[in-house]
Each structure stands twice: as C-alpha cells, then as structure tokens.
Amino acid sequence: MVGEVQTGLLQNSGEIPDSLSTELLALVRGERVRVFRRPIAYAVSPDRLTGVDCHLASASGARVRGVGTVLSRASVTGGRLVQGSSQVRVTRGTSNRRLAWSHYMARPGVVEVVGKARAADLAGGFTLDAPPAESLDLGAVSARFVDVVQSSARLDRRAPFRMARTRFRWTAEPGEPDVRLQLRGDNVRTLRLTLPDPFAPGVAELCEDLALHDWLLTALIEIVRRARPGSVARPEAAARLAPAIDHILHLWMPAARVQDSLLHVWESLEHRPGFTRQWQSLVNRVRDHVTVALLTVAGGDGRSGD
Amino acid sequence: MTPVNATFGEVAAERRIASSPLSHVSIELGHLYMEDFEAGPDRLRQQFRRAEPWASTARRSWQERVPGGRARVSTCFLIDDYFSRFSTPAELIPVIVETAADSGLTIDYLARESACARAGGVEPAKLVEDRLVADPPVGTNGSRPPARETGWLCNGTRSPVAGVVQAMGVAQKWRPPAQNAKRGHSVFVDVELWNDDDGERTWSCPFLAAVWQLLRLGMLRDDGRPPVVPQPRGTTFPDDWADLPPIIRLVPSAAPFAAYTTLSVLSSRFMPVELAVRTILSQVAVDAEVLGQVVSRSEDEGVPLEDELVDRLSYVFT
To answer: Closest Cα of chain A to B296: distance in Å?
Structure first.
C-alpha cells in the first residue's frame, strides 16, 4: 500500500459548521458525506477514483509500469483542517500487457504492476526525496481534493494565520511490525510501515490521523516561533499566540478513530519522537505565556521581556 | 475488575447500502422508438417473433446452470418517452402486451426511457455521471486532472485537432487517435454523453442506455437505496406518459427486475449504441460495497459472476 495525505488550514476565518463541511465534501451525487461528532467533529467525502497508467518510482531505479485506479477522499476535521488523501494498493498484474479498462474498474484502488517488481523496491521509491517527475504522483491527486474544498465560494478566505500544507507520504508493507517516520524538507514527511496486514482498511485512516497531528504540531511550533515569546513585548507575543488557542489547541485528539489493531503504531510514535509530549510542552508554553501577559496587563506592568 | 470494551456508533457516520432483490438474468425483449411505432404493428410483431426463441433459450440455459433448476428470469421492455413522445400509455401498453403474448412472450416490467434521466426526485443519469472514471492514456500519473472533453468519453487518446498551428508557425501533422488497451491496432471509440444546448441538458441515447443497463444490474444507489423501484400496475394505464411510474411491474408474480446478468435482444441497428454503452460502462466506478454484495450473493447461490461489469452483459442482435 502507498498513499499521500495533504493537510492544510481551511481558508475560512472561523470554524465551519458540520452542515457546511457536508456541503463542501459532497463530491459524488447520491453518496453520503459521513459525519462523526465524537470525540471530534470529522466529516469525510465519499471515495473517488482516478485512473493512472504510468511508471512507479523504485529505489533501484528499475522501470516499473503500473495501471489502475487511485482511491481518494477529502475530509474536514474540527471544521478547521482540510485533508486530501489518496492511496493505492499495488499488486502484481495478471498479464504482462495493459488490459481493457473494465478490468481495472473491477478493482477499485488497485494499481497492477505490468511485469515484475519487488514491494520493498517500490516502497523505497515512493518515499524517495524526489521521485522521478513522470512517476505516480499521489500528491497531485490529493492536492486536487484539498483544492476542491478550499476553492468553495462558501469559504471567506480569511484564515486566521498562514500555514503551509504538509505532505505525508506513506507506505505499508507486509512483515514484522516496524514504524519509520522521517521529516524531510519542504513540509514532506515519509512514513514506512511494516505490518502483519498492511491492506487492512484502517491503515489509510491511521496515516490520515498521523498526518493531521503532524500538521498540528508543525503549525504550533511555527506559531510559537513567529510569536517570539521572550523577544518581543508580552502583549504582542500573546496576541500572536492567540490564534493557536482560538483555532488549533482543541484539535489534538490522537487516534480518535484508529482501529485497535493499529494503535501500536501511534503508541510507538508517542514513545519516539513523542508527539503528545512535544505538543503538551508547547501548549503549556503558550498558555503560560498568555497567562503571564494577562497578569502583567492586569497589574498595569507592560514592560517587555521575560 | 474485568475490562469492558465499549462500543460507540454514530448514525450520520454510517454508510448503509440496501441490497436489491436480484434475478439471474434480465431479458430485454426490445426497445420501442417513435420510428418503430410509426412503422405500424407489424414491426412490433416481428421484433417479438424474433426475440422469442432467444428468450426461451436464455431461460432454459439458466435453468440448467442454477442448482435445482430454479432460475429467476425477468423480462422487460423499454419505451422511449425521452427523445420523442407518441401515443399514450392507455393506448399503447395493452397493444404491446398482447402482441408479445401472440409470440408466446410475457413482459414482466415496462420502463420509460426518461426514467434513466429522472425518476421522481432522483436523476439516475447524474448518479452515473459522477461515477465516471476516464480510461487513462499511457503516461497518466495523476499530476494533472484527467483530460476531458465536456460531454464526451473515449477509450484512448484523441487525434490532435487538425489544422492547429503551433508556435513557430508549423502546422501540426495529423496523428491517429489510439485506443489505450489496443492489441496491435486501435478501435478508437468516442461517445457523446450529453449536450447542453439552450441551457438544458439532453442526455445521449447511449448514456441513457448505459444507465438502463446499470439499473437492470441493480448497481446504482442513491444515498444507499436503489434509485428506481418498480411499481405495481394499476387497473388502467394513464393517458400521459408522465403519469406512468418510471418502471411498472405488469406481472405481479414476476421475478425481480434487477439481475446478476442482462440479455438484450435488439435490432442490429442498435449495435453502435451498445458499443458506446460498453465504452461507458467500462468507465463507471460502481460502489465497491454494492459490487461485493452482488458477488457474495451470487457465490452463495453457486452462480459465480464475471469480475467485470461489461462481461455480465450479453446481446442478441436480430
């Protein structure tokens, strides 16, 4: 399995209600947008398919052709964050030539390799820093799903702060459980999972959840960096930290819908690098700073610095 | 303390897909268009007379195939009320039913072609439009949105527009179109799905015929429910096509309308239309859960089905 999740801040000044999320995500007529309200508001579009016939990146540089469909969806979490997620299950083809399109349509979300390929070679290729330009581009497909939501005229385009989208590329191969997460430049993250059942339907949801929390952490780090607490006047820094309190702190809800059998992946990432540990430390820093700033204002002391 | 595993669910978060009752085969005994109607009653009689041997052969072969011989076979007939309207249900339906009976045929279900475009509050054609997944030419890696000519669907790469002058003033040479899954040579098919002249959408005959096949295969859902459900017939038929339910069940004891497979007995003038239908159906993404339901039911019955939807369709062109 390979996939890419793009995560970004919804281009709207405030949180959007479930009813608007439902409207934005109605990408297929006759198909329901699923809406979860607990433990956090989450709405997800119906799945859509995109046909592909192209090279698959491989670590060895071998030329591998894949034909089939990419399965994608868009989602809105907490009325605030938008995600576009695409995935394919790569399987060995039944033939060494391209078949009629109806063959691939009977296997939604599957890309068949025409010829031979090794799973590890393809997983390595997909998580390369820069896969060849002509190879399968799940990022572009996911980006279009984010764009469809972001371009809605129903959004006021006045986001409370600017934050780049993150690109979370993942692969899941069969084998002894193993988790490898890497932060790369340009807001790219790669996750290589080895699981006893890499084709379980919950794997993509797990990766979407990890991508969401990685975005939250990245955004909070960035907001704190921009606010420069300790370097600028307290009220000013507090004002710059306020969007974090207003818009993202309440969105941290690890593994909200992750299947029990995959919880160990989250747990291992909590151990190292320790997502929640870092998040909690940043949250405390933000709250402490704002509290001190408020106390200072109440005490009539507007001096700068800590 | 014994640990307790809590279960929690939210209705709005669920996807419920109703299953359709299914026959083994749905036999279409014919289409009726204005031109057939104008050609007089003999045209209809001839159509039924030609269809009868094929219908009974199909019935017999399913009886042999199904364990216990209890094959569920339903028959249907389609009347065009979309591209042209003629006669009235009150006048026409009894004539069709009697003419079929003269050839030893029973019509179980009668459908209006416009039902494929709109049936009550549902627009089946739009459900299909949103489920089209274009057959990708070699080199399609997802980086650009699928190339699309609005209202058209093909099975390959179109020929470049003739006479286009590129930069540097060099006229582009003609290049042939190519079928994506060609074997040696191409059979390139380009199908018009609709036009929006005068601001109003008119679906093409092949597109509606593709919707018709999907309805007969029980593959469409609107919010989890079948978009068109056959209604029982009244004691009389109305004077206006619009007052007739989209699909009516003429025989109360008929086997289900939708089926695992379809057989269409048609005049050979429909051959190009059906090629177009197959081109369209090859690019429709049917809901995976619906597909799965049908496959598991057919396997439970001991009648394995073909993977590909187009392989569940068969034809007799007379």
So the answer is: 15
Contacts of A102 in chain B (CB under 8 A): 281-282, 308-311
Residue in A178, A202, A68, A52 with CA at minimum distance from that of residue A123: A178
Task: Return the domain boundaries, chain A.
Answer: 2-195, 218-298
* Least confident residue range of A45-49, A198-202, B108-112: A198-202
Query: Residue B266, SS3?
Result: strand
pLDDT at residue A125, as a whole number? 92
Mutant choice from A105, A138, A146, A151 vs B, greatest count of B C-beta within 10 A = A105
In whole angstroms, what separates CA B276 from the centre of its chain? 11
- pLDDT averaged per 10 residues in sequence order, chain B, 318 residues: 79 88 96 85 92 96 92 96 90 94 97 93 95 95 86 92 60 85 93 90 96 97 95 93 94 97 94 96 95 94 93 95
Domain residue ranges in chain B: 15-132+202-269+285-317
CA angle B291, B296, B302 (to 5 degrees): 125
Question: How would you classify the pairing of strands B109-112 and B73-79?
Answer: parallel
CB contact under 8 A, B141 and A36: no
Q: Exposed e or buried b for every residue in B255-271, given b needs 16+ CB within 10 A?
A: bbbbbbbbbbbbbeebe
ipTM: 0.91
Chain B residues with CB inside 8 Å of A31's CB?
A: 130, 223, 287
Alpha carbon of residue A24 to chain centroid: 18
The answer for A187, left when phi > 0, alpha when psi is -120 to 50, beta otherwise, is: left
pLDDT in tens, A1-42: 999 999 999 999 999 999 999 999 999 999 999 999 999 999
For chain A, what percentages of helix, strand and coil (3-state, to nearest 5) are there? 35, 25, 35
Residues from chain B that touch A53, judged by Cβ atoms under 8 A, are 136-140, 180
